[in-house]
């Protein structure tokens, strides 16, 4: 279970970025914690997958027990990153998947901004993605 680089990023983090579900499963089977944090930003593999629009990786990590509301060093949740980088997943599947797994749309980062407020500021962000999943859905 050796770290793969000097930022404490395991292959699991990179597999999440690449949407490589097979490698995600291999690393988890090898005992790598699903919510392992890297050092620079405090991101978990779910943060990487959400920020990059890697829908299959998001689903695999959540199914393996990843913390849907894990906060980075700046207080950013995976949902916050998915909203900020929504151009990478323009179909909204990552945002909806996180919401369906109970992501808190009102969880504020260190700057005081929630994913919902961020979505309202991004033009043109399809706010209906938030409406499609009732708040508090688990």
UniProtKB/TrEMBL annotation:
Q: Which domain of life is it from?
A: Bacteria
UniProt keyword terms in alphabetical order: ANK repeat, Repeat
Keyword Hydrolase listed? The answer is no
Q: Which InterPro entries match?
A: Ankyrin_rpt, Ankyrin_rpt-contain_sf
Where do the TM regions start and end? none
Q: Where are the ANK repeats?
A: 41-73, 74-110
What start and end residues bound the annotated signal peptide? none
Q: Which residues form a coiled coil?
A: none
Task: Answer whether the UniProt record assigns the keyword Aminoacyl-tRNA synthetase to this protein.
Answer: no
Q: Which PANTHER family match?
A: ANKYRIN REPEAT DOMAIN-CONTAINING PROTEIN 39-RELATED (PTHR24171)
Q: What is this protein called?
A: Ankyrin repeat protein
